[in-house]
Design goal:
Layout: H1 2-33, H2 38-43, H3 52-61, H4 68-81, E1 83-86, E2 91-94, E3 101-102, E4 107-108, H5 109-144, H6 149-163, H7 166-180, H8 197-230, H9 234-241, H10 246-274, H11 278-284, H12 289-298, H13 302-330
Helix pairs in contact: 1-4, 1-13, 5-6, 5-8, 5-10, 6-8, 7-8, 7-11, 8-10, 9-10, 10-13, 11-12, 12-13
């Protein structure tokens, strides 16, 4: 088991280096290959109001006129050791890991991301619990009652959940449950959990349900398909022939064998959400990483966009690492593969 964990940790570090290289290529090399000049790259760092002389000065100070491999060295060095950014008469130091410096807000990017991370983390964690428990439970019941009214109704609702976009269900939920009935908090409401846990849950209840409805639908269909395949296997018939209770057969033998694909998708979905639930946060005006990335795109603030991409990549890598380790818990054969 220890060897398996070490292998996965080493693979995660290598993958993180590959992601940083790919991010640099996308943001800096590809535009150069497409004909962008150093001044064009610098214009994404200073917003829309800078004049050509200011843009060129920033391009020189940020090293965009240097060879591309030198720029990548500066980029990687900033992530590992920090970087200095000229802001006119003074120089600002961005501590490691430096995800960039916004010249529009005059702040390093990482502290802003960390300030908004609790909102996105709260949204993702609460919705993940709802969609995982609800989706898996509905999928198991649908598989055990295949062809019944419950099965057809559940799969119909699941199809609607997968098909309807979050900005439609979110706005519809706000108009009904918040503004018409007054049951839930209106958009833009968020209370830190350390201030008031009950108010925190109340503010996020509707975003949780809306986001969970989208994901639970897919998990219900995936669980149903996995359970239908598993419940027809020989080891299930053997377990029943031994006189095991039906609950033990379904949960310990049937569901456990069907959890592997569910766990894979859950790791990817959770990692993506922690990187920023853009549509949900924009719909409910939640000050999280997703809303932060939308504002960065609107204001043409490239360092913020770059920081969101990096932190999103890190969360996806960590989520997949955790999934790999959980594979060994669910199926002991994985650690020897």
């Amino acid at each position: 088991m220890a060897v398996y964990i070490v292998r996965r940790l080493v693979a995660a570090v290598i993958l993180l280096l590959i992601v940083t290289a790919a991010t640099f290529v996308i943001f800096f090399l590809v535009p150069r290959l497409a004909g962008a000049t150093p001044d064009d790259l610098a214009s994404r760092y200073v917003g829309k109001s800078a004049d050509p002389a200011q843009i060129h000065a920033i391009a020189v100070k940020l090293g965009f006129t240097e060879p591309i491999w030198v720029q990548y060295g500066h980029f990687l060095s900033g992530l590992l050791f920090g970087q200095d950014y000229p802001t006119g008469p003074t120089t600002v130091h961005c501590d490691a890991p430096c995800f960039g410096y916004s010249f529009l807000t005059q702040n390093p990017v990482l502290p802003d991301l960390l300030d908004r991370l609790p909102v996105t983390l709260s949204l993702a964690a609460g919705a993940a619990v709802l969609w995982l428990v609800g989706g898996v439970a509905v999928g198991v019941l649908s598989a055990l009652r295949r062809g019944s009214v419950f099965d057809r109704a559940a799969m119909g609702v699941a199809l609607a959940g997968v098909s309807l976009p979050i900005f439609f269900t979110g706005l519809l939920s706000l108009s009904i449950f918040s503004y018409a009935l007054g049951w839930t908090a209106p958009g833009g409401s968020y209370t830190p959990i350390e201030d008031n846990p009950f108010e925190w849950a109340y503010d996020l209840l509707l975003p949780w349900i809306t986001l969970a409805f989208l994901y639970a639908a897919g998990y219900a269909r995936l669980t149903r398909a996995g359970m239908l395949d598993t419940m027809g296997e020989d080891f299930i018939r053997t377990a029943r022939a031994k006189g095991l209770p039906e609950r033990t057969v379904v949960l310990k033998h049937g569901l456990r064998s069907a959890l592997t694909p569910i766990l894979t998708i859950f790791g990817l979905d959770l990692g993506l959400l922690l990187g920023g639930a853009i549509l949900t946060e924009s719909t409910y005006s939640l000050p999280g990483i997703g809303k932060y990335s939308v504002d960065a795109v609107v204001s043409n603030d490239l360092p913020k966009i770059l920081g969101v991409v990096l932190i999103g990549s890190i969360f996806i890598i960590l989520a997949n690492l955790i999934v790999d380790l959980l594979y060994a818990v669910i199926d002991p054969r994985v650690r020897y593969s």
